[in-house]
Structure formats: C-alpha cells, structure tokens
Amino acid sequence: MAHVSRLAALRRREFLKRASALSVAGTAAPWALQLAAINEAAAATAPGDYKALVCLFLYGGNDHGNTLVPYDAASHQLYSTIRQTLATPRDQLAATALTPSVALPDGRQMALAPTMTGLKPVFDAGRLAVMLNIGTLMQPTTLAQYKAGNVPLPPKLFSHNDQQSLWQSSNPEGAISGWGGRLGDQFLSSNGNATFSCINISGNAVYMAGKQAVQYQMNSGGAVAINGVTRTLFGSQACSDALRTLVTGERSHWMEAELNRVTARSITAQSTISSALSNITLQTPFETGSLAAQLQMVARLIGARQALGASRQVFFVSLGGFDLHDLLVNQHPGLLGSVGNAMASFDAALQELGVAQNVTTFTASDFGRTLSSNGDGSDHGWGSYHFVMGGAVKGGRFYGQLPSVSVGGPDDVGQGRLLPTTSVDQLAATLARWMGVSATDLPLVLPGIVNFDQKDLGFMTV
Amino acid sequence: MTEDASSPAAALSAASTAGAVLSAAALLAACGGGSSTDSGSDSDPQNALPANDGEAARFLAQAGFAASTTDVATVKSVGYGRWLDMQFNASRSQTHYDWLVAKGYSAETYRNSLAGVDATLWRKLIGSSDQLRQRVVLALSEIFVVSMNGLPVSWPGFAVAGYVDMLEERCFGTFRNLLEGVTLSPAMGVYLAMRGNRKEDPRSGRQPDENYAREVMQLFTIGLNQLNPDGSPKTNGGKTIDTYTLAQISEVARVFTGWDFDTTAPSGADPSYMRRPMVHTASRFSTGVKKVLDTTIPESADGPAAMKAALDTLANHPNVGPFIGRQLIQRLVCSNPSGAYVQRVATAFNDNGQGVRGDMKAVIRAVLLDSEARTPSANPGGGKLREPVQRLIQWARTVGMSSPGDLWAIGDCSNPASRLGQSPMRSGSVFNFFRPGYVPPNSQLGTNGVTAPEFQLCNESTVAGYLNFMQGLVNAGIGDMKPDYTADLAIAADATALVQRHALLLGGGTVSEATITTITTAVGAIVATTDAGKLNRVKASWLLMLASPDYQIQK
Questions:
Q1: String of DSSP letters for B325-348
Q2: φ, ψ dihedrals at A380, nearest 5°
Q3: How many Å apart are CA B177 and CA B170, to the nearest integer?
Q4: Test mutation, B249, B433, B463, chain A, max A CBs within 10 A
C-alpha cells in the first residue's frame, strides 16, 4: 500500500499548488468540468506505477455448468444425468481437464469447456484463477435463510437487467454508479487525464459510471472524429465553426447540456486517443470477432498509457448472446471459444507489452443458470463460476466452495440454481484492494462489503 | 419545380411564422417533468386546432415522423383529433411479407438470410403515408422486442417481416389482441424460445422453458413492481412490492408449452408459416392445475384455453395501463411524463369511454392529445432525446426521400462509429436499445433524477457517428435515395428564410432564437450567387439544424 500514501501526498500537494491557478476558471464552468480540471491539475502519475482492471461481461447469463464441467467420473455421471442432452461428453474434456495447485475436495476434478483450450495454458502458468459459486448477495446467506426469507436478498433475482445491474453496481436497474466507476473515482486525481480513467469499449454500462468518474465510450476501431468539425463543412469554415459551437456550447436545458457535454468530450478525447494510439502496434495475433477486437483495443490503450496520462484505469468489454434458453449445445461452445481465445490473446499481448503484472481481467455475467435442462437450453439462475486472469493473480487454482452436482442439493434454490457462497462484493473488494484502495476507503467503492467478514479472497498478489 | 417551391412557401409563410411560433411557445405554461397541470377539460382536445404551423409541425413529429408542408396544412385545417382519425383509417402500404416475396427473397437461396428486411423496414418508415401507424409500430417494436440479432432459424427475414406486419395489423385494435399476436408470432416464438417449449419430464428432470413466461410479465404487460395508476410504484414499509415470484414464473412457463410453427415442413422452401400464428400440440402441453398470478387455470383447460386465461389475466392486471401507457408516452412525447399524465393515459387504457379495455386507439389519442403533449414543456428536464432512427426518418421524410428503384438501400444502421448505433428491429436484446428508467449518470439529469432512455445510446462514438452519417446523407443521399432540395433552393438566397424553414419543419417551432441566429449567420456566409453556393447553403442549413441540441431534444 506504500504507493497509495505516496500518491495521496502528491495528490494533496499538487492539488494545493494547482487549484489556485485554476480558481479563475472556477465559477462559470459546470461542476463536472471543474472537477475534471482540478483532478487533472492534481495529477501525479508516477512512471511505471500502473494498474488496470478489465471487466469482461458475458451478457445474457452464462451457463456456468457447461463452462467448467465436472470431470471426475462420478461427478460427470451426475452431471450427465441431470443435464441430459446438454451435457458435454466426458471424452471431449480430457484436453481441458484442470490440475489445480490446490486440489479440489473429495477427489473432484473440473475441466474447461472443450472450446476454451486457449485458457488451459494460462491456468497452468498460474495466471488464471476460477471463482466458484459466486453471485450477488446482500450478506452471507444459508439455504435455510433463503427459504425462510428472513435475511435481505438481492432484489429482482433471476431478472436479466436487474442482475446485470446488481453485478455491476450492487443495485438493481436504475442505479447510477457502478463499482468500476467508483474505483475510477478513487484514482481520478492520479491520472493525468481524468477522461481516460474509465474506458468502455462496448457501449454503455452502469459498472463504469462513478460518482465523479465519467465513462469514456469508444469502439474497438478507435475514436471517431466529427468530420464537419475537423474540416470545413460543405466548403465553409464559418459553418464548421458554427457546428462546433452548436454541439459543444453550454445549454440551460438539461438534456441539451448532457448531449453537448458528451459531444465536447468526444471531440477533445478523439484527438488525444488517435495520436496516442498511432505509435502502438501489437505483434500478438487476435482472432476476428467483436470481443477479440475489443480486448485488442484495450491492450493498445494500455500500451499508450503514458501518452494518455493514465496510472489507474478501469476497462469494460463485453460479449452478448449467452441467454441460451434454446440451442445451448449449438451456440454456447462457440461463444466460450471466443471468450477463451480473446482472453488468451489478451494475456499474450500484455506480456508483449511487459505489463502482465499490472493488469487484471475478470469475467462477470447476469447470473449462472439452472443445472437442469429445459430440453434445449437452461434457465435463469444465480450463482456461477467466473475467471480472474493476470500476472498478479495467484492462479492455477480454484477459490470458494465447489457446489455439489445435484438438483435439490445443499446450495440449490430450485432446478439447480445455485445459492452463491461467495459474493460479487468480495470479488470486487479483493480487486479494489489490489488496485490500491485502502481498507478504510473500501466501503466508498463497495458499500455492501461491510456485511462480509472476509473482505479479501486472497487470490491477488499484493 | 415552381409549383413545389410556391406551395410550401404559402403554407409556411417562411420566416415570420416561425418567429411567431417561438414567442407563442414561450408564453405557454410549463408542464411535464413532474409538474402536473389539469388537462383543460373545458375544451375538447379532439377538436383542437394548432394555433400555427409550428404547433402543427410539432404535433406531426410526435404523432408521425415528419411534417411535410401538406401535412402541416391538413392538421391546421382539420385539427389534431381528426388528423388522428384520418390516420387510424389510412390504408396500409404493401406488407413487408409481400414485398419480400415480390423481390424474390422467398427463393430457397435466402432461407437463412435477412436479406431485404432492412430495406422493407426503411421503405415503410420513410416512404409509407400512414405515418401514425408507422410511428406506433416502431414504438411497439421497442416494447415487444424481437431482434434480427437473435433469430437462429430458417427464414429469419420472413419471421421479422411477419412480426412487423402483425404489429401493423393489430396496433390500432385492443391490447389483448396485440398481446396474443405477439405471443403466438413465430418470430417471438423463436426469439424468446416459446416455440418448441415442452412439458416437464419427471424422468429426465427436464423443465419447461421459462423465457417467455418471464418476459411476457416483466416487459410486455405488468413489470416487476406493483404500480399505482399514475405509474409510481406501490410501496409497503418503504419498499416496492414485487408483482410475482420465481415460483409463479415456473407456473406460467407450464402454460406456454406445446406451441410450434404452423407447418408440417419447416425446412421446405415456403416461408408462409412465418406469418401464421403458432399452433398447439396437446401431447407437449403441461397438464394439471396452474396458477397465473391470482388466477387458477383448471386441469380441464387445454393449451389454447390455458393460454387465453393467462393472457386475459395479464392483460387485465391494473399495472398494464400505467406500465404500457408510460412507455408509449416516452416513445412518442417525452421522457418524464407527470404522474397525472400517465394516469390519464392509463384511465383511457382501462376504459375507452365505451366500456372497452385496452383500446389502443383510445390510448394513442390520450397520449397525443393530452395537454402535456400539446404544450411544450418549459421544464429544463422536459421533452426527450429523439432516438437516432427517428432523426434519420424525420429528415428523410422531410426532404421527400424515396427510392425510385424500390431498393431502399440504407441497410443496417447499427454501427455506432459510422452510422446511428441503432437500427429498426436490431436491438441487442429483448431489453431494447434503451430502458424506460435509464438515468444518465454524472449529469444534471442524474442529479435531478430525470429519466432519459435514449441517452443510453448517446456516447462519444455515437454522437460522432450520427453527425458523420447525416452529413453524408445530406450531401449525396444514399443509394438511389436522393433528397429533394427544390423547395430549399428556391429560397436559399435568403439565409433567414431557409433556416427558419428548416427550424420549423424539424423543430416544430421549438428551436431557440440563438440557434437560429448562429445557423443563419454561418449559412449566410456562404456566397449564394451560384447554384453551387445555394446548394451548399441548403446542405449546411440542414446539417446544422440536425446537429443542434435544440432539434435533437424533442420538446
């Protein structure tokens, strides 16, 4: 934690020095702009001190049951009996069966989905860990408490949009800040350019909105310039100037103001991003496809971190299509293959850039799914399995409690829906501590963590 | 050419009218954004007339997509209510299904293709004269979402065509009828996996698929929370009250078993089953007693009877009026209707005045003729961000775009970097392009808790993609679709008249004087002594107006 206090000291000193220089500009500008300006002024980027967290969200609710599959003969038999036609045959799992550094209980073994071969070497090299039965929780909850309904439960369980929001923000849909954004809040002042603290390569996610931090949204192809602003508009410089005025000027109507705030940020950030990326090329191959392209762009942005003035960053990428009530056997393997290959390429690219120790990637999803089959797919569940990847991860092993392979088992709230034994807050808190959030500040990022005794799951090298 | 130029000039009387519109609008009382006002019941909204061209154009942008000079004149002459009547009775243009067939897309080679679907969607959205129906269908397609990104089935294009045709057919009928059309449509059957859903199997442990059961309640009828008639959530001890439990979803899932395509040869070359409702197979139906909310469906009910009872129960739930009514207001009028406005629409939903529940015409009338719709809000959080496709359609209609070759080759506009970040029937999920409760974080909207769904699509990429895409369209059209600038060129020498015209047609009298001045000054700086100069003035004026936040936020 030494670097945090050093940063904090730098932060205060720089703030005092530069705040006075800014005070003239202070009163007229909107508060958010003022804040950004102050933070940028207070920036204290120590070269070489860099950490980034990447959230890979699997939209739709990933079928965890076929992502990490029971491999020992007894468990696989139970799994096959329950999943019927959804089950992955055991002989297809031999190549991806995992040998963790800490053995699973009762002789149990697990295998990655056969299409996730790309992740096997990453696990074996100790840079990939598996979180077992993790999900949204308000507090540690037993099955008896769940059934009795006598402890607070996450609202709107099993609902896509709400559980996405809970994973990302600890609140159901309508939340206006997420824990990625609140992490960004903690580090706005250590970044030279506050705009690039939280970068979303896949649209819009509440995860990335902080109390102050604003998510900057761009594409895997890069930032987009507005032609009418960068060049004359229909031959007229006056019209180009007017366009800039119209789309960036201050507005009293709140919606007009927000629209212009986004556009102004688009124009300013685009020139910085484009110039920062112009020198960054990667040798590591990425396959084609949306997720691979997103992670490739994240890797390039990380490569450009100094030009972007970044020392702490949060990124968001995503892949959709996981809500497989139907066609699970047909479609799920391909999706998992995309995830595995894109993550493996990203891992390789980070090593190429020499920042493997500095970047941690984790998967997240709406929820896990039922272990039981509906004939052609599975239905909305709760607890799930997830991955954490990076050089600072104590990988090559599993964390948390391995659930029994059963319907009606000790963790089952119905049809093989898992009651989580590890909470998202605990995962998030462990990652936040690694990023440098102090124990004292942790509740600012994760208010719900106070309800859990174990605030560090121990999977990160700090 | 001169005829075209003179008639708009007469209808709009250019600059002076728009100026008058602005001052009139400024004098009108504030409403919307949470403050409720009485609907002015002393005057019958059915017979109300717009006071000027601006009010007529503003109405047309809510009730349809665009204000042609002819439409403005019509609304001024017949009034709002009668214009709606005319549109309710407007004949439908060629169905999507028939157009695809006519273009040869039912050939076997297109069996796994979406070819032609974007084209026929744009054809109607931009080219069909029944613009109220088109606008309502677009709105409904964003509530009862089916997406081309999620139809892994033969003939996906015809599934979408059949679905949108069904929405057209039923959008002015009853909600109950619409809900049944949605439920039994092959497209929804595929999209939410109700098609092929089978009864439980105790031997294998197989359970009925819960997908449709869940979303028909969460998204299509009652929502997650019990609502008051004004759309606010009911509370108990400060907490919202759930409308259903997980166990109830499992019950409803059993109701929706046994349905599949109405065909014996789904792999054949005939896509016609994609426009027929699904049919029921008794042997796949989960028998036994089921409960749907408070309704007990007896063991004696067969599949169709059980489904009817379930849909009746959902459609009769008191949540539907405020839940669906509020979303229709958001799609057509404003993002933050007052509770009183929602309640007035819900009341019309509950009873159209003749004892009919869910009369969509009455609901649409209530949405569009309400005083809160007819009066621009002075609230800084009033109005809504026009959705990207709405902006494209509005402009394309305003400049009279059509496709002489009947190609409508605009294509998929989903790319956020180079296009609109949105395209009809191409949502990323059943949760639509944006959520009705979305509040942009870190903004004055967020600070004030103002809902702004369309902002979920507004980011650093899409704002640039939109402006660049529209600049290309304004400059050269797209494919064989070219803008008709005849009326613009006739007045292009007068920058003031030109910009006022565009402000009126796009903004319906709500564009600020300051913005009009900014655009007029810039456009006026282009020398208009040549045809090329005039053309540049026209193009620049359109683009600047399309870019202006005054326009993008529909007031």
A1: HHHHHHHHT-SS--HHHHHHHHHH
A2: -60, 130
A3: 7
A4: B463
Any B CB within 8 A of A23 CB = no
What sign results for the dihedral spanned by CA atoms B79, B85, B88, B93? negative
The C-alpha angle B263, B267, B272, rounded to 5 degrees, equals 45
Nearest CA among B535, B395, B359 for reference residue B470: B395
CA distance A253 to A20: 31
Q: A272, A193 in Cβ contact below 8 A?
A: yes
The gap between the terminal CA atoms of chain A, to the nearest Å, is 8
Calpha distance A113→A120 (Å, rounded): 10
Task: For residue B442, give the nearest of A32, A203, A321 by CB distance.
Answer: A32
DSSP code at position B30? P
Contacts of B458 in chain A (CB under 8 A): 258-259, 262
Does residue B530 sit at the A interface (CB-CB below 8 Å)? Answer: no
Walk along chain A (462 residues) and give the pLDDT tens digit of each residue: 333 334 444 443 343 343 333 333 333 344 444 444 444 433 434 557 999 999 999 999 999 999 999 999 999 999 999 999 999 999 999 999 999 999 999 999 999 999 999 999 999 999 999 999 999 999 999 999 999 999 999 999 999 999 999 999 988 888 899 999 999 999 998 899 999 999 999 989 999 999 999 999 999 999 999 999 999 999 999 999 999 999 999 999 999 999 999 999 999 999 999 999 998 999 999 999 999 999 999 999 999 999 999 999 999 999 999 999 999 999 999 999 999 999 999 999 999 999 999 999 999 999 999 999 999 999 999 999 999 999 999 999 999 999 999 999 999 999 999 999 999 999 999 999 999 999 999 999 999 999 999 999 999 998
d(CA B237, CA A407): 35
Q: What is the dihedral of CA B47, B53, B55, B57, to 10 degrees?
A: 100
Residue with tokens 């009293």: A252
ipTM above 0.85, yes or no: yes
CB hemisphere CA count around A335 (13 angstroms): 23
Name the residue among B381, B429, B399 with its Cα closest to residue B506. Answer: B399
Burial-class residue A279 by CB neighbours within 10 Å (0-12, 13-18, 19+).
exposed
How do beta strands B235-236 and B295-297 pair?
Answer: unpaired
Rg of chain B's alpha carbons, rounded to an integer?
Answer: 24
Helix, strand, coil proportions of chain B in percent (round to 5)?
Answer: 50, 5, 45
Q: What is the least distance, in Å, from the CA of A393 to any CA of chain B?
A: 32
Residue of B nearest to A406 (CA): B205
Longest CA–CA separation in chain B, Å: 84
- Residues in B closer than 8 angstroms to A247, CB to CB, are 463, 467, 547-549
Q: Does A415 touch chain B (CB under 8 A)?
A: yes
B456–A224 CB contact, under 8 Å? no
3-state helix, strand, coil in chain A (%, to 5): 45, 15, 40
Token representation of residue B148? 């081309």
Q: Torsion-angle region of residue A16: left (phi > 0), alpha (psi -120 to 50) or beta?
A: alpha
Angstrom distance (rounded) from CA B387 to CA B457: 8
Q: Which residue spans within A255-330 are E strands per DSSP? A: 312-319
Those residues whose C-beta lies under 8 Å from the C-beta of residue A144, and which sit 6 or more positions away, are none
In eight-state DSSP terms, residue B273 is G
Residue B428, both tokens: 């990323």
3-state secondary structure of B57: helix
Probe site for chain B from A58, A255, A260, A367 (most B CB atoms < 10 A):
A255
- Six-digit token pair at B63? 């009730």
Alpha-carbon distance of B468 to A15, in angstroms, equals: 39
